[in-house]
Amino acid sequence: MESQNICRSCLKSTPNFRNIFTSEEILGQPVQLSDILGSCFAISITKDDGYPENICLKCFQLAKLSYLFRKLCEKSDATLREYLHANFFSADSRHYYVQSTSSERCRINAGGNSRNGPSDPHCSGLCTRRN
Questions:
Q1: Which end of the chain has less neighbouring CB within 10 Å, N or C?
Q2: Is 106 marked within a binding site?
Q3: Residues 6 or more apart from 63 whose CB is under 8 A from it?
Q4: Who's near 87: CB < 8 A, 6+ residues apart?
Q5: Would you say 40 is a known binding-site residue?
Q6: Does the global pTM surpass 0.85?
Q7: Separation CA 52–CA 34 (nearest Å)
Q8: Domains, the chain, ranges and CATH?
C-alpha cells in the first residue's frame, strides 16, 4: 500500500488531499491538521512516523467541524463556570450547595457561614443555587 496516496483517516484514495502537517486558518488562528486529529480524536501523530501524511477533503471537513464543535463546547463550559462562580459569590441571602468530590453536599449561605464550604479541599467547585 503506497501510504502517500491514501487518506490517513478513511484510507481511501482520492485525487485531492491536504497534508496534515500544514497549517490551516480556523477561527482566525493557524492550526495544524495533525494537532486537530491528535486533540479531538486522541490519535498519536508524528512527522515521519511512516503513516500517510495526507487527509482527503471529506475527512478534512469532518475534522474541522469536530474542532469547531470542541472549541464551542470549551467556550460554553468556560462561560457557564464563570456564570456559576459569579452567582455563587453574589451578596444576597440565598443558600448555595456545593457538590463535593465525596458526593456530599455542603450548604453555604451568602454571608459566608458554611459547613465545609468552598475552602474545603474536597470541594469540586461545582456550585448550584437553591432558593
A1: C
A2: no
A3: 9, 33, 36, 37, 40, 55
A4: 127, 129
A5: no
A6: no
A7: 11
A8: 1-75 (3.40.1800.20), 89-131 (no CATH)
In the block, cell 453555604 appears at: 108
| C-alpha cell, 105 | 453536599
Residue 56 marked ligand-binding: yes
pLDDT in tens, the chain (131 residues): 556 789 999 999 988 999 999 998 988 889 999 999 988 888 888 888 899 999 999 999 999 999 999 999 999 999 998 888 777 665 454 554 444 444 444 444 444 444 444 454 444 454 444 44
Q: Is 10 annotated as a binding residue?
A: yes
On the CB side of 16, CA atoms within 13 Å amount to: 5
* 59 exposure class (CB count in 10 Å sphere: 0-12, 13-18, 19+): buried
